[in-house]
Amino acid sequence: MRDTRESRLLLVLLIAIAFALITVDIRGGEDSPVDGARQGAATVFGPIESGVSAAVDPVGNAVSAIRESGERHDRLAVLEEENAALKARLGSDDRSRSRLKQLDKMLKIAGQGQYGIKGAEVIAIGAAQGFSWTITIDVGAGDGIKRDMTVLNGDGLVGRVTTVGPSTATVLLASDPDFTVGTRMEAGDELGFASGQGDRPLRVELLNGKAEVKKGDRLVTFGSQADRPFVPGVPVGVVSRVDPSGGGLTRTLYVTPYAAFTKLDIVGVVVEAPKKDPRDTVLPPKPKPTPRPTVTVTVTPSAEAPADGQNQQEQ
């Protein structure tokens, strides 16, 4: 449109009408005469805006789809829907398949334990924290992360949040020698404390020195007061060795953790604890014993050799 006197007058008139409508809308409050038109516009253009947003950010951060999985109501169904959406968004290359598998396992743990989690990616290991076993994740205070929150992945307990920045956080891994978590034996309910030993199995001191424990028994987190730093029921590991009881007040176990601390990629921070203790429901199914083949040896008697005397007569 050419810049003419008529066009300038039309522009001034439109601006005046706009200010008049804004004034009427503000003074009208909830009974504003333009409220219906505004709602109609939101109904028409809202889905378009959402669609454009999804189109311009097809994957972004693959973990963002589970950032807000903390709703209690029908949480398992919500997590399953988010998992299906992630499968549709991620590609088919090896890297994406590996990350999708991790996300899938973590979502299942969150659903089984009814944990509200925020997904995160590991972006650094703990060189900045001295010789501690730590990782840095890409969520922080802006994502609702706070100090002393439980961190897990699709295998089990990873650690706890120790330092929180605006957009990142530091996690102390369960393998760190300064890490301690209360544990509970599966089914038997024997309580103890697990401590990290670097790249060696966790060391667990059971409070009952006469507890009956064997190799292959499993442990979960006992939980903390107000669920911080640890929520209950998170898988910890499997007993790999039991020290002989020496008649002491405690009994020492060595536990192979479920989480592989040297291969962490996708983790979840528990921002909402379950309403009730999930007990052992989050533990993976027990492996079925492999049957050992039985070999039966049948001895077939050989024909008896003829006597010497009989041989001589035949000759």
Describe this structure in words.
With 315 residues, the protein is of the alpha+beta class. 28% of the residues lie in helices and 24% in strands. It contains five helices and twelve strands. It has a six-stranded antiparallel β-barrel with strand order 1-2-5-4-3-12. α3 runs antiparallel to α4 (94-113). The longest helix is centred in the N-terminal third of the chain and has 24 residues, at 5-28. 31% of the residues are buried. The model is unreliable at 38-62 (pLDDT under 50).
How many helix segments?
A: 5
* Helix/sheet category: alpha+beta
**Cα gyration radius (Å):** 32 Å
E-strand count: 12
Average pLDDT score = 77
List SSEs in N-to-C order.
HHHHEEEEEEEEEEEEH
The coarse overall form would be elongated
Arrangement of strands in the largest sheet: 1-2-5-4-3-12
What level of helicity do the residues show?
A: 25-40%
- What does the main sheet amount to? 6 strands, antiparallel, barrel
Measured between the Cα atoms of the first and last residue, the distance is 134 Å
Beta fraction: 15-25%
- Low-pLDDT segments, ≥5 res: 38-62
Keywords: Cell shape
Function: Involved in formation and maintenance of cell shape.
Region (Disordered): 274-315
Protein name: Cell shape-determining protein MreC
